[in-house]
Amino acid sequence: MPLDRWSESVVRYFYCKKFAELFPGVHQLVECDKIDLVLREGSAIAFVEFKFYRHPIRFDPYDGSIRGFKGGPGAKNLLEFQSCVKKLHSRRSTESLSKFIILLYADPVDSKRPNLRFSTQYDQYRHPNEGIPLLELEFSESIAVADATIRARLFEIGAPPTCRHTKRG
Questions:
Q1: What is the pTM of this model?
Q2: Comparing C-alpha atoms, which of 88, 121, 91, 124 is closest to residue 107?
Q3: Are 164 and 106 within 8 A, CB to CB?
Q4: Is the Cβ–Cβ distance between 140 and 119 less than 8 Å?
Q5: Phi/psi class of residue 74: alpha, beta or left (left: φ > 0; alpha: ψ in -120 to 50)?
Q6: 7 within 8 A of 71, measured Cβ to Cβ
Q7: Is residue 127 classed exposed, middle or buried when 0-12, 13-18 and 19+ CB atoms within 10 A define those classes?
Q8: For position 142, what pLDDT does the model report?
């Protein structure tokens, strides 16, 4: 499937499908009280937000020609991600609750705007508010597709400082 047909909802669909195969006993609630995905098993709960950023192409609806890019990396995009972190952090916490953000971002292979790349914003991302503990659990190697390079990161929000996680590729 070409990358220009993917969206955050498509990413969430495939994630939920695979998760259900691996963990059939975990109940999934999609779009639950403005949280992308809530996972429940017994008393354990996880809130999961998905962020999927790419350089969407604008097409002319009459002749199908490319009209340029819509959106992309920049200050507005970065503020949206930071707002997602803040929103999830501000949710009431409980002992059995975990909060995660799954971030995927794709940069064109041969971009005419090399200074405007999501990888520049997110490969070494550190949240500006030090009061919000944001721990990187996973950072994928680059995933090459036909016309882009995709990277994925998994963050946990509000992890206790004594919690130790390993970084894997």
A1: 0.84
A2: 121
A3: no
A4: no
A5: left
A6: no
A7: middle
A8: 83
pLDDT tens-digit readout, 113-154: 666 788 888 998 999 998 899 999 989 888 878 778 899 999
Q: Is residue 54 part of a domain?
A: yes
Residue whose structure tokens are 């998994």: 154
For residues 135 and 159, the answer to whether their CB atoms sit within 8 Å is yes
Residue 162 lies in a domain: no
Domain holding 31, by residue range, is 3-18+27-157
Query: What secondary structure letter does DSSP report for 168?
Result: B
Which of 69, 86, 96, 73 has its CA nearest to residue 134? 86
Nearest Cα neighbor of 141 from 122, 118, 169 is 169
Residue ranges of the chain with pLDDT lower than 50? 160-169
